[in-house]
Fold this sequence. Notes:
The protein is α/β, with parallel strands linked by helices and about 525 residues long.
Amino acid sequence: MNNVDVYDVTLRDGTQGEGISFSVEDKIRVAHKIDELGIKYIEGGWPGSNDRDEDFFKKIKYEKLINSKLAAFGSTRRANNNCDNDPNVQSLLKAETNVITIVGKTWDFHVNKALKISNEQNLELIFDTIEYLKKRTDEVFFDAEHFFDGYKTNEKYSISTIISAINGGADGIILCDTNGGSTPWEIDKAVKMVKEFSKNKILGIHSHNDSDLGVANALQAVLAGANQIQGTINGYGERCGNANLCSIIANLNLKMNIECIKKENLEKLSEVSNFINELANLPINNKLPFVGKSAFAHKGGIHVSAVMRDTSTYEHIEPELVGNKRRILVSDLSGRSNISYKLDELGITNINENNLSIILQELKKLENNGYEFENVDASFELFVKKFSGNYIPKIELLETEINTRQIIPSSDSFAKVKVKINNQIIENESSGTGPVNALDNALRKTLIKEYPSLKDVELKDYRVRVVSGSKGTESLVRVIIESSDKKTSWSTIGVSSDIVEASWKALIDSFEYKLMSQAS
């Protein structure tokens, strides 16, 4: 099997995705993270299109990349300019990268409709721009935009654009499925054809995911002879996104025996995925293959029982290979195996078989009453340890009083709490922007006096869901709170027909979990 280089376009194509906007500093941090992964090429952006990308290329010159080559992206010269006078071409040279990637039209429909020039003029743009840049930089790649659509409608012309790029001196030809509508068998046919007359050139694939075939098309292109794959981390990109490099890299290394990044770097894949997702400030996609939180999560009792005997029964690889980890979920679908696995994970060893059955029954009863322990390990650990006598709660609620005034929309709420801590009854009150915030503030004032370490606990996320909607405003609500102490984070749950009471239960669990963790 041929060697394959990875070319990352997260900082250019990826940023065209809805909801994604990186600052210059963010882009530099992303570049370093991708470099750590060992990816060969990083496309930094289009310096001729916006000030942010120009600023990025100015600043990245002073950063040291260990493994990756930086590429600048741009288009062929305009029809009414020569390269010396074309601002886009000159901005590419000003970026001072050793690699430049030029996009050009290969579908005659776009040549006529978008550029509004003749087919022959377009061939001249491609040849002139690549020849000009190749004399002034080390490597020049040609992104053959809409190649597969062009190939399907006018094979002869699409091929002529590739030949113009080769004659201009392009080091590599990148075939782009720009609209993301091609299938693996169409990719296979076209790549094999281009391979025949570009044998001494790098041949790449740039696929989009509009038909949910981005990764499949990229891998098929490799089987057909491509030796460069372009894509983005987590599949970010316009419309439905680009081919997901996390999946491509894992499949190449682990399924196709092609070491596109070093084997030891493969373990960084999940970390890089999470880092860039956090920087993009996007909701976490737990369902991502290989790197997602749910990729190796097991819930059904039969599945868990089998995984405990041999992980390959329900896992296609060991999660540690890509820096991920196995998760066993507990729910009303759980069996004894789920509970046993979680108890071992928590280091709880004094649960006999009879108590194990009681815990399972109680768990299913709670889930039937609206609780959900799949993603709230902190509340589950508290539940099990309190039940088994491994932890005695330190906070006992005696009374709460809430006063919410709505004279104007911004009016504060007031809350008073009475709790029992270490056989001492303590009362406190506080205000907040709503009843839950007021309760939280009053509770914190009370607890921090007794447990100073709780001052580091902060609320990171607060989610409410109605779990039984047939009773209108009397329906049960489920509140899940994510908390953090700047070192780690945890999630807790509360359920009640009263949203304030549900919030209170989740809050108490959050503080109890912190106290339990520091005591263990």
